[in-house]
Amino acid sequence: MNILITGGAQGIGKGLADYFLRQKHNVVITDIDEEAMAACREEYAQFTNQLLVQRCDTSREAEVRDAVLAMGDQFGQIDALVNNAAIADPETGPIEELELVQWERRLQVNLTGYFLVAKHTIPALRQTRGSIVNIASTRALQSEPHTEAYAASKGGVVAFTHALAVSLGPVIRVNCISPGWIATEEWQAPSRRKTPELSKSDRHQHPVGRVGFPADIAAMTDYLISDAAGFITGQDFVVDGGMSRKMIYEE
Asked: How far apart are the first and last CA of the chain?
């Protein structure tokens, strides 16, 4: 299977790329972080024939088009798209102080970028009867203060997912994953990489007794792009260790 993963050089995206490379799939990573991309090329040198790392700002249509063409040249077809590239920092301060440029940049990358990549991969996905997985966030469903731009973009991803699923069915399935707390510190570029510091409280506030890891999102993605999920489309799957189902009151 040939899989395109946007924002795949670090964080959840890199965890996804690692998982699928080790499952013997061909993977195209797009990203804009040069350090992270260089690290991927070095760390996954043993997968040279399976991996293409391509610079792409997903909010720029010309770069998206070039990345999709490069994938076609390298592997010939596209079987699955994982829309993951996003500005991950959710907090932007009080809304009355939020600059329009910050609001628009988050929407451009976190939502418009998903549209652009889907737009340019859909012709190839029609040929393979492929699948799309959009990575959203539990922040589409619940919030902390001062996260309006991020929450709006991720809520848009959830809505974009079910609209696209209806438009593209029955040929292409489209689903969404909303991760909760995923520890990605070990999946960053080398200069930012560190071991996560997780307290007993961090673990125990999750009903499953731990925080999440990129492999948890990869396992759900693997299922959703497989034939086993052939009767599933237009859905948002919350992968958060049950945290969003837990009632929390301040004393």
From this structure: 51
Length of the chain: 251
CA distance 207 to 184: 20
Active site residue 150: yes
Q: How many domains does the chain have?
A: 1
Alpha carbon distance 52, 54 (integer Å): 6
Q: Would you give the DSSP letter of residue 174?
A: E
CATH of the domain at 235: 3.40.50.720
Asked whether residue 161 is domain-assigned, the answer is yes
pTM of the prediction? 0.95
Assess contact for 217 and 182: CB atoms under 8 A. yes
User: Within a domain: residue 111?
Assistant: yes
- Which residue of the set 44, 114, 150, 249 is catalytic? 150
CA–CA distance, 157 with 95 (Å, rounded to integer): 21
- Give the domain range for residue 83: 2-245
Which residues of 84-235 form beta strands (DSSP E)?
131-135, 173-179
Phi, psi of 226, deg, nearest 5: -90, 165
- Please, which pLDDT band fits residue 204 given cuts at 50, 70 and 90? confident
For residue 251, pLDDT over 80 is answered with no
Note the pLDDT of residue 26: 98
User: Residue 192: what are its φ and ψ, rounded to 5°?
Assistant: -115, 0
Residue 250: inside a domain: no
Six-digit token pair at 217? 């999102």
32 inside domain: yes
